[in-house]
Each structure stands twice: as C-alpha cells, then as structure tokens.
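Q: Focus on the shape:
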Amino acid sequence: MDKKIIITIGRQFGAGGLGVAIALGKKLGIPVYDKEILKKAAQDSGFSAEFFEESDEKKRFFSLASIFSNGFGDTENYMSDRGIFKMQSQTIKQIAEQGSAIIVGRCSDYILRDMEGTLDVFLTSPAEVRAARVAERSGKTLEESARLVEEMDRKRAEYYNYYTFGDWGVAGTYDLCIDSSVLDIEGTADFIIDFARKAGLI
C-alpha cells in the first residue's frame, strides 16, 4: 500500500492480541512487531536481546554487570527501567517513521501519540474466555490460567500506567475497543480494517 498505516494494539492477556495483529498483517500486507521490537532495540542499543526480554512490559532495575560478559567487577552500575523504556520507545518511533506497521503493546499508542494517522486499538474479552484460551495454548489448568490472566493484566496495567500516566484498558484512551470473543480472531481483524477504512486511515 502507498499510504502508511500504523495500528497499535493494546490487549488484555489472553484476548488474542498477537493473533489479531498477525491476521491484520496478512490482510493488509504490512509487518507486525511484537517481540521483534525487543530484538531491534537490542541491535540499536548494543545490549543483548535477553536484557530487553527480561524487562519486557515490566518495571525493574538491572545491574549492568549482569549484562556484559566482561562485567564491571563489584562496581554498582544500574540501568533504570526508564532508561530501558526510552531505548525501546526510540525503536518504536523509528519503526513507525520508516513505514506501515502493526505494533503490539509496549505503550506504543502513547509513544506514537503525536504521530498523525495512527489507529489505537484495545482488545478485551471476558476473563473466563481468556483463561480458557490460555489453558488451551499452554496446557495449564483453567484455575492456573485464570490466575495467570489476572497476574499478567495487573503487570500490564502497572507498566502502562507508570510510563504513560494514563489508564490501561480505559476506553477513552483508544480509538477503538473490541471484545475479540464476539467475532473471534479473523472477524476482529476484518472489523478493525473496516473501521480504519471508514475513518480514512486506509
């Protein structure tokens, strides 16, 4: 497509965010960035990919001595979580500036808030539906999956609210909020595309 398309996808855990993003990417013929953001941030910064994976959508502090193989001896060297977030934000901005992209999570709607023409989507589903989806893909029991859903939602909310000073999952934060269990993965992707067309973004 000649027109640049930027879609950000926030999601509750187990709501099918990555599945919908992949379906959108195939239908629109544009790249999807999820864990790829971490790999690119690692390349851009010179840190290891494992470093960014450990910090992914979490608030933590890291000892620089644990990052580099040669280490820093006993020196107290720390990279703050805000430093990590800044590096990742720069990577997300570069991705969006270079061309069309579907970006999953990582406060991408907030990071790209000043970029015109972005579509910010949030995906939700009833907790029991998400727990069943997690149980199916992970092999965990429904009870274990329900606890994991609750824990991951809490962590994502803490991460988002901390860095954006906003409210994760609150409808007013996004352009479009969808219960992905109503239309399932493919139908949700089609709905997002239809909405984007009517909004003049595609």
